[in-house]
Amino acid sequence: MKASDLFIKALENEGVEYIFGIPGEENLDFLDSIKDSKIKLILKRHEQGAGFMAATYGRLTGKPGVCLSTLGPGATNFTTPAAYAQLGAMPMMMITGQKPIKKSKQGRFQIVDIVELMNPITKYTRQIVNGNNIPAMVRESFRLAMEERPGAVHLELPEDIAAEECEERIFEVVGHRRPDADEMAIQEAVKMIEEAKMPLVLIGAGANRKRTSKALATFINKTGIPFFNTQMGKGVVDERHPNFLGTAALSSHDFIHCAIGKADLIINVGHDVIEKPPFFMEEDGTKVIHINFFPAQIDEVYFPQLNVIGDISTSIIHIAKHIENKSNWDLSYYSRIKKEVEAHLTKYSQDNRFPILPQRLVHIVREELPDDAIVTLDNGMYKIWFARNYKCYQSNTLLLDNALATMGAGLASAICAKLINPTKKVISVSGDGGFMMNSQELETAVRLSLNMIVVILNDSAYGMIKWKQEGMGFDNFGLDYNNPDFVKYAESYGAKGHRPTSDENFKDILSKCLKMDGVHVIDLAVDYSLNHPILNVLLKEKTCKL
C-alpha cells in the first residue's frame, strides 16, 4: 500500500481520533489518505493553534494529540507548541512534510532542517526515509510520548516517501506496568513522616494523573495531613477538602508560605522542576520526601533528603497503609493558616467595582460554573489570581501553563477541551494581549459549531509585565497598546459579542451565555490596580505569627 495510507493505519492503530493542522502541498498524499479514515481532520488557522490543541488533547486524555503541518514556515510554527507540550508534560505528536529527499526538484527552497530544529524540544524526532519503517516509528513515537515524563515527538514525512509503495505491517500496541518503589524507600518515608512534628503534603504537576487523584485523597483522608498544590497540581484532590490550605501561585511570601515555613517535612508528590518553584529549600531547613516516577533533579533550591521512585499512586497507597504513629504531630498551626488564607482570598470577592477586579471575576466564574466545567487560561496577570483564588473540584478543570507559560494557547486549548468534552461547560479566559496572538481560531470554534465562552480581560496593556515593572521600581513605559472592537471582531467571525457595563451586568451575561448555544465573546474591562499593593507590598510585609 501507499506509505501515507500505512501512516494513517498506524495512527488508527494507536486510537487517534483527530489530526489538528494546516496541510501544505507536501502533505497532499497524507491528506488524501485521511479522507477515507475514521480519523477526523480539524483544519486550523495557524499551526500554533493546531499544536496547542494537540497538546491539550494529550493533557486531557493521556494519549498523544496529533498535529500536522507542511515544511519550512509551517513546521517552524510548531516550535512553540512543541516546547509547550515538552515542558508541560503533555503527550503530543507532530507530523511535518518535506520536499522529496531522493531527487531535489527546487533546490533549497523552503527547506529547513526541522529534525535538528526539534531535537532540543522533543523526546524523539526523526525523518522517515523508507515507508516500510513507518509502523515501527509511529509505535515508538507514541510509546515515548506517553512514557513518564510525557512530552512531544516529531516525524517528518517527505513528499516522495509518502507516495511510495510499501508493505503493510502494523505493530500491536503493548502497554507496560510501571515498577513499584523499593520497599526500603517506602519504610524510610513512613519513618520520616511518623517522626515529623508538622508534616505537609505538596501536590505537583506530575501527580495530575487519574489514578493518583484517588490514591492521594485516600492518603489525606487517612492521615489527616494538610495539603497544598502547585498551579499545575490544582484539582488533583478536591480543593473543598477541609485539609486543603491553598495553591502556591508564587514562589515565596504568600500566606501559604507561612505554613510551608513552619513545616519540618514536606511530602512532595509529583514535583516537576519545570514548574515555577512553589517554595525554596534551604540548607538545615525543612526536609523533603520526593515521591515521583523518576528521581529528583537537584539544584540550588531543591535537594530532597529521600527519593521514593516508582508508580506514584502505588507509592502513596503503600506509605498510607504503613503509617500508624501520629503522636508526634501538631497540625493546629495549619488550621489557623487556613483561616488566614481564606480571609485574604475572599477579601475582594464581593467588591463590585467596575472595571472588574480579578478577584471578583474569579469568584463569579466559580459561582456560575458547575463542578466539572473547564476553564482554560492563557498567560497573563489573571493566571496568578485564578491559581490563588479559584478552587478546583476535579483535576484538569483549570488548564493553565506554569511550565513554558506561553501566551496564545488559551483559546486553542478551550476549543480542544470542548471538542472532546461536548457536554461540559468550557470557558476560555485570556488577556487582550494573549487573545490577539491566536484570535483567528475563533473561526475554527464557529466552524465546528461549538458552544463555548471566551472572556477577554481588556486593559489595553501587557498587564503582567506592567506589574513586574512597577514592582521593580521602573517607570510605566512601553507596554500600552490599542485594541480592536472585540464585539465587532467576534461578530465578524459569526460569534456573538458582549461588552458588560457593570459587575452585575457581567454576571448576568455570563449566566445567560452558559445557557445559550454558539461561541460567545465577552469583552470585559479589568482593573489591575491592586496587583502591586497586594502582591508586591502586602504579601512581603505580612507576618506569620498566629
Key features of this structure:
Rossmann fold, globular, 546 residues, alpha/beta, 22 helices, 3 domains
Characterization of this structure:
There is one protein chain. By secondary structure, this protein is α/β, with parallel strands linked by helices. The protein folds into three domains: 3-163, Rossmann fold, CATH 3.40.50; 183-338, Rossmann fold (3-Layer(aba) Sandwich), CATH 3.40.50; 346-536, Thiamin diphosphate (ThDP)-binding fold, Pyr/PP domains (Rossmann fold, 3-Layer(aba) Sandwich). The chain contains 22 helices and 18 strands. The chain has helices spanning 3-13, 28-35, 47-61, 72-76, 79-88, 114-118, 134-146, 159-163, 183-195, 210-223, 256-262, 312-322, 332-345, 358-368, 381-389, 410-420, 432-437, 442-447, 463-471, 486-492, 503-515, 531-541, and strands at residues 18-22, 40-43, 65-69, 92-98, 124-127, 152-158, 199-203, 227-229, 244-247, 265-269, 287-292, 306-309, 374-377, 398-399, 426-431, 452-458, 496-498, 519-525. The strands form three sheets. It has a six-stranded parallel beta sheet with strand order 2-1-3-4-6-5, with helices on both faces. The protein has a six-stranded parallel beta sheet with strand order 9-8-7-10-11-12, sandwiched between helices. Strand 1 (18-22), helix 2 (28-35) and strand 2 form a beta-alpha-beta unit. Helix 1 crosses helix 2 and helix 9 (183-195) crosses helix 12 (312-322). The longest helix has 15 residues, at 47-61. The radius of gyration is 24 Å and the shape is globular. The chain starts with a helix and ends in a 5-residue tail after the last helix. The mean pLDDT is 95.
